[in-house]
Amino acid sequence: MRSVLRQKILKPKDVAVYSEGVNEVIRDLIKRIHTLRSQEDDGETVTNVNNLFFKYSMEGKQGPGSITSAKKMDVKQCADG
Q1: What is the pLDDT of residue 61?
Q2: How many domains would you assign to the chain?
Q3: I need a surface site. Which of 20, 27, 50, 68 has the fewest CB within 10 A?
Q4: In this structure, is residue 67 part of a structural domain?
Q5: Does the residue 28 lie in any domain?
């Protein structure tokens, strides 16, 4: 069991390859949350946050360099609606 898990766990230097792509998705998510909050009467509430998190998590799973601008726009448009 340990040998199987050891092969699946990435080393820190291997994880670094993915960090910029993940950071970009997180920055986009935070901007979207700020936008949604500003549109609410109380300036605080974000409705349907689970759906929003799901859409952005799916974008992050695409990996670095594999997210095309078109796919990114689709996710953002879905998040808008």
Answers
A1: 59
A2: 1
A3: 50
A4: yes
A5: yes
Between residues 2 and 63, which one has the greater pLDDT?
Answer: 2
Domain assignment present for 8: no
Q: Is 36 exposed, middle or buried (0-12, 13-18, 19+ CB in 10 A)?
A: middle
User: Is 33 within 8 Å of 52 (Cβ atoms)?
Assistant: yes
Per-residue buried b or exposed e for 4-26, using 16+ beta carbons within 10 Å of the residue's own CB:
eeeeeeeeeeeeeeeeebeeebe
Domain encompassing residue 65 = 18-80
The string of pLDDT tens digits covering residues 9-68 is: 777 887 788 788 888 888 999 999 999 999 999 989 888 889 888 888 777 555 544 444
Rg (C-alpha) for the chain, rounded Å, is 16
Residue closest to 36 by CA, chosen among 44, 28, 26: 44
